[in-house]
Amino acid sequence: MEKFYDDALLTSMAAAFRILREKKGVSQEVVYFETEINIGRIERALFNLKIGTISQLCKYYEIKLSDFFKLVEKQK
After folding, report:
1. Which domain holds residue 40?
2. Cβ atoms of residues 18 and 31 within 8 Å
3. From CA 42, how far away is CA 10, in angstroms rounded?
4. How many angstroms separate the CA atoms of 43 and 17, rounded?
């Protein structure tokens, strides 16, 4: 099965995660140490995200998945 890569969507998601991180007032390093997720790579839109990773980050940033995707839509 071919993997799909939507550069525009990943860029919007990266921007949304950057906004959430800055709003929380933490560095990429802090996010990594608290979640073991490399947010730096995500914020540069370097790879496709799994829904589990998105869900974990939403929990960390205390935002519902639905609200996260609304934020993603605003970044387009």
Report:
1. 7-69
2. no
3. 8
4. 7
* CATH code for the domain in which residue 35 is found: 1.10.260.40
Distance in angstroms between the alpha carbons of the first and the last residue of the chain: 28
50 lies in some domain: yes
What are 1-27's pLDDT values in tens digits?
567 778 999 999 999 999 999 999 999
**Which long-range contacts does 51-57 make (Cβ < 8 Å, 24+ apart)?**
54/13, 57/17, 57/20
| Residue pair 32/38 in contact by the 8 Å Cβ criterion | yes
- What is this structure's pTM? 0.91
Joined together, the tokens standing for residue 18 give 């950057």
Residue 76 domain flag: no
* 31 occurs within a structural domain: yes
